[in-house]
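User: Fold this; tokens only.

Assistant: Input:
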Amino acid sequence: MHYNDSFSMIVNYSSSSGSEEETEGSSKDDSSPLRKRGKLDTETSTSEPLDHASVKRKAGKSSHLTPHLPLPDSVKEMFRDPEDQWIDKSEVHGGRQRSFQHERGNWATYVFCPYDPEEAFLELINGMMAVAAAHGIPLTLSEEFHISISKTVVLRHHWIQPFIQSIRTSLTQFQKFSCLADKLRVYSNAEKTRTFLGMEISTGKTQFLELIKIVDETMKEFSLSTFYKDPSFHVSLAWCVGDHTERLKKTCLSQMQSLVDAHEDGPFYIQLNCTELRCKSGNKVFLFPLK
């Protein structure tokens, strides 16, 4: 495992040893001179007459103490009972279901090569979505476009920095390259809860396979799932809830492919210049420029 303190995001560790020190201190022998003196002073003071005026002054002060302000909800959440469970509402994110249970402190993480789409690409996808809708399959445009280099895995927060540094170190000598995608394919996730329309890579597969080997080595270091044995590198264009793989293939895949092949400016294809990889962990994105 690689560690580098110069990395921009450093996870700080702290231990709660203060309470232990206080406990140990409170168990010391009461026979020390200071403790004996404290007991003697206490016993002497209780035998003296009380000053009623001073008692009244103290009571008056205590009655005018400023009331405690209520704790903000954000602070209360920090100390929420760990047994409280996160309620995942699929309707909030288009009916999508998590592949794994949400757990506080776990970060969904994956490595990918980004694709910045051009206007013609988005128009083409809209045309494909219209074809699918005409066959009763409502597709939703992908929120981002990329080629996956890893499965989505779960990282504990304190693993993120060494995980990122391991990948960064392994990619220092990897050369940037270009790839093309022009063939539509239908995919589904392992749970069969979502179906994807994607455009498969036709050139550049060799470089992606080399990238997989590098990223998989880091996955093994952290005992995480490696990539698929026979991967189909692709850019996901749109998706829908449920398993509609066969339905898309039989009813409208060929019609959508014809939109790609008979594009007004000639057969359309994605040309992706892979100059960097990215890793998204939770809401943070880390960049790995290629040489």
